[in-house]
Structure formats: structure tokens, C-alpha cells
Design goal:
- This protein is an alpha+beta fold.
- The protein contains nine helices and 17 strands.
- It has a six-stranded antiparallel sheet with strand order 3-2-1-4-5-6. A five-stranded mixed beta barrel has the order 7-12-13-14-17.
- The model has no long low-confidence stretch (mean pLDDT about 95).
Length: about 450
Amino acid sequence: MQIDQQIAEIQNIVDDVLTMAKAKGATQAEASMSKVQGIAVSSRMKEVENVEFTNDGGLGISVYVGKHKGSASTADLSKDALALTVEKAIDIARYTSEDPCTGLADAELMATSFPDLELYHPQELDPQRAMQIAIEAETAALDFDPRVVNSDGANYNANHGMRVYGNTHGINAGYPSSRYSLSCMTIAAEDDDMQRDYAYTVSRRPDGLKSAVSVGEEAADNTVSRLGSRKINTANVPVLLHKDVASSLFGHYVSAISGGNLYRRSSFLLDKLGAQVFPKWLNIEELPHLKGGLASSNFDAEGVATRDLQVVEDGKLAHYLYTTYSARKMKKTPTGHAGGIHNWVVGHTGHDDKALLEEMGTGLLVTELMGQGVSVVTGDYSRGAAGYWVENGVIQYPVHEVTIAGNLKDMFANIRAIGKERDVRGGVQTGSVLIDNMKVAGS
């Protein structure tokens, strides 16, 4: 069956469920369904270890009886099962507490335009080809350098899916998507030292992935380069977050400006709308309709239309991010962020990666972050790290077992430069980020 037919069938199911809900006493209702078919292959030491096929799907419905909410879900799409699911949701709603902020987003906020965002690029889910790709990556890694003595495996994943959302305001829309990824992790040894590192690639398109050989060789090169890692003395120095890990810094910013944390008054950026948070030269734009974007969507998880948004303008906090519930709590308007952000593109200062090292001079290049020692309430930041010590713009030796610490408020304000070579493998697209001064705790 063609993908368009499958989506149309699911839309009919969503229509039926919403009609049932209204007939059984719901004042409002919403239903969503996702369906995923995929293959996952893992190899270890050039031998296939696992082959998994996925064929998952389920429908969830939320009903509102006045200001009471009930939710239920089912993987059985028969008429009887759907009717029972609706009944269960209605029953739950009758027993839940009344909440004045619950309910669908306002009808005028619903998406009405659904352009093709080029998210669906199907390719036959061929297990033989998947095995070949995984083994090819691992072989390239193991053959790269004799110091690569073992492998933690290579993994190839391909998923084709679809999502449909509808509610009693009249929206009933769906779209297909695809996602492909390949990763490889290796272990290298020299004398008494052993190190582990990895590389990965991800894309909506199968031909958008890096080649298996390049992923394997990158994993091996990353691992070998960490041999001979040292501890360093505690100091206050510039820190350069490599683009592979820099997106996490902006992930903390997302949390701090999200409505859930704001109405709970648990964010260090509460009441800071319009305040100077980053340097004046920094802009961050959200582009939800980016063709082929990994976080692109015409509407959020509540059917609210997404739109281009300047989330940071001239370094100032330009917008908070609200779901329907958090917006009502704060007496604001939903911003289309139920389910997360949509392709943040972080501005840059024009430096390539080499120029960023030269700009830093002497300090720590961080390529790995560990632990979750970050408080969105206070902004306090403390995470384990590994990377490379840099002097006069030149990498000197690998570093491990260090902690980098500061406060997000200072870290944001003290960003000196951002690289133009962006990592585009997630919802935040950013280059490496140079922070003027952080405490690096070592031996």
C-alpha cells in the first residue's frame, strides 16, 4: 500500500475516534497516531550480532469533559478496540480533577497549510545491505591503525514512519518521514592505556549519510587520538566546546525558556524576556519548515502551526517557548513547541575550526561531556569532560578526568566566538562554541 493511502486510512480512523468521543460526551478531543517500520543491524568484530525488524504503531486519544482530561491508547485498531479506548478515556476524565488550564489550543492557532517538507525518502529495508554497511564501517575502523584492538560495534538503522494528528477543531493532518543513521565505536590500546570513542552520521536521506568507510575511519581516528590522555591542573581557562557537543549548551537554554519551567518558577531566566543573555552579535533562528530538517514540522504535537521565530535577537531573549497548558498558566499564547523545538540555527562569527583554536590560544578543547550536573533553576553548571589541551592555538595532548564548571548565565554572556562549520545532526545546528573563562578542575 502506498504511503499516501496509509495516511488517509489513519486519518479516517482518527475521524472515527473523534466522532465517538463527541458522541459519548466529550466537549473536546484530540487523537494522534504514529507508525514506524524499520530495521536495525549491529555488528561486532566484523560479525553480525543483531538484526531487528520494527513494525510499531499505536493510537492515543485525549478527551476533555469540561475541564477534566482523560487519556488512553491502543495498538488494536479494530472498531471494538477503538470504541473501548474512547470509553476508557471518558471514564478517566470523569475522575480527574478539574484544571482550568487544560483543553485544546484555540482553533485559530491550528495549522491550515501543510507544504511538503521533504522528510520522506524511502529505501527498501534490505537486511543484507544493512549488514554490509555496518560491517564495512567496522572493518574500516579496525584496519585504520594497529592500535585499534577492539570494537564496541557498528550500528545501522533505517526507519520509515508516519504521523497523523487530529482534533475536534477540525485539523486532521499527517505526513511521512524517514531517518537513517550509522555509528561505530572502537577501542584503542597503547602500553597500559585504553581509550574508547565513536563517530556517527544521520540523515533523512539514505544518500545523505557519510560513507561507511569514512564513519569507521573517523571513529578509529578519534579513538587513537585520545591515547596518552593526561590529567591537568585545576585552572581558570577558555573552553572550546567542539561542535559535536556544543548543542547541549543551547539545550540548557531551551529548558530555561520553556513554559513548564517558567510557570513553576524554576528557571534562572524567569522574567528575563528582552534581557541581554548572549553577546550582541549572536542570533538564533528557528526554522521549522527547513526542507529535510531533522526537526522540521508544519505543526506541533497539539496541532498548533509552527512558524519561523527569532528566538535570540542581538543576544537578547526574544521569545519564551509555550505549550498550550504552560501558555494558559502564564496567560500567554502557545508558540507551537509542544513536543520540542524545530531546527534552531545558531549564528556564528565566521571562524573555521582551526581559527577557533587560534582565537582561544591556550585552553581546553572539549570533545566529550559526561554527567548531568546542570541546574536550570540556578544556572549552575558542572560536568565531567574529556578533550585536548591547546597552547598557542595548537593541540598539545589529550586530556581526561576533568570537570568544567561555571554558571550558564556567565557562560552564555562570555561566548567569544562560534564556528561556521555546523553540526546539523540534531534539532540544534551549531558550530563549536568558545567560552572566555571557565573553571577546569583536574588533579
